[in-house]
Amino acid sequence: MDFGTRLKELRKSKKLTQQQLGDIIHVSKVSISGYERGERSPDRETLTALADYFNVTTDYLLGRNQTPDCADKDDLIELDKILDSNVDMAYGGETLTDEERQRVKDILTGLFWEFRKEDKSKEK
């Protein structure tokens, strides 16, 4: 996800207008609009102000990291617990069997660790 899309998503999650966000971080509505449309890039000070306001890292805002650091374990839904639960699940209108649920869990676990490894190698 690019910076503009991520910024717009965060702004809307706080139910803010572009004007309100601009007032909070001391930039114009036109600047916020330009960032969201990908026509402008914020300077370092503005980027830091946005990250501080939304309680995320600048890397998250810039799309270098897919999980905001503000998410803690209490906020996250443990997907493995959902997959292990007795709740019926479906995909494409078809109910998953126990074997299919286990396959989904195995695939997601593999992808999670693969992405985690890639993220850590990018940080170096």
Automatic annotation (TrEMBL):
<dbReference type="InterPro" id="IPR001387">
    <property type="entry name" value="Cro/C1-type_HTH"/>
</dbReference>
<dbReference type="Pfam" id="PF01381">
    <property type="entry name" value="HTH_3"/>
</dbReference>
<dbReference type="InterPro" id="IPR010982">
    <property type="entry name" value="Lambda_DNA-bd_dom_sf"/>
</dbReference>
<feature type="domain" description="HTH cro/C1-type">
    <location>
        <begin position="7"/>
        <end position="61"/>
    </location>
</feature>
<protein>
    <submittedName>
        <fullName>Transcriptional regulator</fullName>
    </submittedName>
</protein>
<keyword id="KW-0238">DNA-binding</keyword>
<dbReference type="GO" id="GO:0003677">
    <property type="term" value="F:DNA binding"/>
</dbReference>
